[in-house]
TrEMBL record:
SUPFAM superfamilies: HAD-like. It holds the Pfam family HAD_2. This is HAD family phosphatase. It comes from the Bacteria. InterPro entries: HAD-like_hydrolase_sf (IPR050155), HAD-like_sf (IPR036412), HAD-SF_hydro_IA (IPR006439), HAD_2 (IPR041492), HAD_sf (IPR023214), PGP-like_dom2 (IPR023198). Coiled coil: none annotated.
Amino acid sequence: MIKAVIFDMDGVIIDSEGVYLKYQLEFAKKKNPNVKLEDLYPMVGATKQECWEVVERVVSNGQTWEELRKEFRQRDIYSEIDYRSIYRLEVTDTLKQLKEAGFRLALASSTHLELVERVLKENGIRDYFEAVVSGEQFKKSKPDPEIYLYTAGQLKLKPEECLAVEDSTIGITAAHRAGLKIAAVIDTRYGFDQSLADYKLNRVKEVLEAVKVHRI
C-alpha cells in the first residue's frame, strides 16, 4: 500500500533540463564551435562526473572535466533563471489533491539544497513537503539508492510504501534499487531508459491515478 509520494525536482516539478543545456551549449561552443545541442543530451540526468565527461569528450580541447566544470561554475547561471517560468503549473493542484487524499509528500533531488529550497518557495509549494532531501547530503548520488532509502526513513516508512516520481534513467534506477514503486514522467527528448518504471505518466498529474491502484 502506497502511503507517500517522493518527487524528483528537475524534469518533474520544473522543466529545467533544456534550460541548463542551453547554458552548457553556449559554454561548450566557446571551446569548440562544432559542438551541437544533441551532443550534450547525455548530460541530462547524469552524475556530475559523467555530465562533465560528456563536455570533455565533445569539446576535446585538452581540458579535464574537472577544469571545465570549475570554469563553467564561475558564472552563476542559477541566479539568471526564472524558475517560475519553467514550473509545471499542474504540480500545485497535484500536490494539493495528494495531500487531501492522505498521502505524505517528500522531495529527493540531486540538486544542491539551497537551490531546491529556492525553487519550492518561489513556486509556493514548500509547505506540501514533509521532507526535502538533497543529493549533496550523501557521498554517492543517484543512481545510488541511498537518497531514496534515507527519504523513506525520514518519513518512517518502508521503501515499498513509497512511490517515486522520476524522469531520468539514473533517478529511476536509484528508486528501483531502493525498492520503491516508480512513476516515470515520459520525456522522449533525451533518450531516457524508463523501462524500470511501474507507471508511465504523460503529465505529472497522472500520478493521482497511479496511487489509487495501491490504495485498494
